[in-house]
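Record 1 of the preview.
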Amino acid sequence: MQPIVKLEHAKKSFGDNEVLKDISLTVNKGDVLAIIGPSGGGKSTLLRCLTLLETLDAGDLSYGDLEVTKTDASGKAVYGGKDVLKQARTKFGLVFQNFNLFPHYTVIKNVTDAPINVQKRDKAEALAAGRALLEKMGLAEKEDMVPCELSGGQQQRVAIARALAMNPDVLFFDEPTSALDPELTQDVLKVIRELAAEKMTMVIVTHEMNFARDVADYLIFMDGGVIVEQGRAEDVINNPQQERTRAFLSKYEEE
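->
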């Protein structure tokens, strides 16, 4: 099986605070990986390292055949040159917690700007693809609005369409529903469920346990910068083997 993303022995510190301690993971084509765990456990830092928003101190990261970092003899992560990083950024899409849409762009411009200006795709083709994505997100009639005219859930669905417009190999989500109220959360989760059904490769940091169990193939529980437990999502959530995992999940059952 061809891994879409492979990370081996990743380490990351901020000053004296070791946030990632020897993390390894592999995501194969069509996999949905959920990452759960308490705040401060390293989940978002892991995602930021995978999407090149933070640099690893050590570790090997590759996207398919593209080697992004390699650990040298001294144990430090050495990144590929500008061309490698540029190529790596075409491999993934990232959906943030707070949407990060361009506030002064219309919905359709938010979705098509990068395909036209970064990927140099034909404008008419990019617009047609963008409109098809908005229709898929249930937002066909919103294309001329600007983000402030939309609900949070609609903005997040525009953000997903924008990420998909680049035709990435994998989509990363950083707690995509944590800024939304429960009703709007369901709309966004529905879109992600549909993408999972279409075999879109995804890595999702989430605190929605039922969603993680139902949609993810694999699940990683992180705490204190390490992977405490991992396995089939259903197995880890329904039958956790580690005491720390059990304690974490029991808090969700109480709510």
